[in-house]
Design brief:
alpha/beta; Rossmann fold; 11-stranded mixed sheet; 19 strands; binds zinc ion
Length: 439
Amino acid sequence: MLRFVLQLIRANIKVHFNNLLSRKQLLKMTQRRLIRGIRRAYYEVPFYKKLYDEWGVDIDEIKTLDDLRKLPFITKDDVREQFPNGIVSRKHDIADCHYSATTGSTGRSLPFVFTKSTFAFYIATGIRMYTMIGYRPWHKVVYIKYTKINYPRIGPFLRTQHIPSTIPVEEQIAMLRNSGVDLLLGYASLVYEIAQKVTPEDLKTIRPKFIGINSELSTKYQRDFISQVFGCPVYDEYSTEETWMVASQCREGHYHLFIDNVWVEFLDKNGNPVKPGEDGEIVLTTTRSNAMPFIRYKIGDIGRYSDRACSCGLGYPVLESFEGRADDSFIMPSGKYVSSLKLLNTFTKYIKKYLHLMEEFKIIQKEKGFVVIQLVKGREYNDRHFQEVIDSLNAIFAEPVTIKVEFVDNIDMKNSIKRKAIESWVRNNEKEPLLTSAV
Ligand SMILES: [Zn+2]
């Protein structure tokens, strides 16, 4: 534990120091780390060795950020198929690593690991994101997530509290009332759901200084609504569970790409870099995850970058916009709004509990009272375990909704880049007036 605290302090000094670097210095540092990481992956990770040899990559020719174009892409399917023996470095023992799994927004489980020092770095980049907007170590952080993160606490500093994302919104509000929250963190749709439900009485004790929302696409309308209800600024971040921080908003409201953690490429459909201001597919390469590197990882999101400098003075490049996590939220027969993330997190919870219960899923709300789950069974599927998932969904809906399960061999993927796990056919224009009326 002491060792981890020291790693965390060191990582914090490092990532905050990076805020002082110019764009040119950051690029130079990123290039050095990236090239070193790719070479290491080639020699230590069986999957990359095999892949690059098949592609005829001469690893000694990979010297600059531009040379990345000589390397093939990898996808979530590759990672899933290769985990653990193919994709985890031979130099690292999984037992010593931090293990996690995600469904992302795709509805397919994705396991991954990182070392404790990488974990310290990831936490530090998270802390930096919040110090950028005014967080101080003595502030109380309350985060809404499906699982608890083992954040270390140092005396009166780094106090955190976990609120499960999968419990009903009323219980979340009750926990918030007693929390003394300064910085509230959570998925956009969940915080939005809370913002709709809190009463003036609740707001006497729930008084965050700032709110950070993450992991899914939020609309400006949602952010403004949350900000108005809680009377504090709302900052958005763009991160993935497997690579952690990709970008977040500075005080000027611009998204900065944290290239000291992950290198981001924006590519057209032929794999060529797009120009600033043009839509491109986002491809990520981690610079810190030696135990399980992601190199040219297609995340399935679209974004635009800008080559301008931000007036806040940070050297990290500016991300103009991004999209890709727009899962649909559900509207219940009574008009109640259920966040898509709450549904997604429920599945993630059981994917972690029963690793091979489901291979893939998709939840479609066809009518307000009728939901279909398309399910590709995992190799250890059983009805009793899946019934737990359905029971949890019924508890979240908390009103009569018919849930029908359809077993399928694969999930039809209409769009070649984006895959949506949660989809609502209840029309959007039925939702907006409802949401507005909740103000
Ligand atoms: Zn800025």
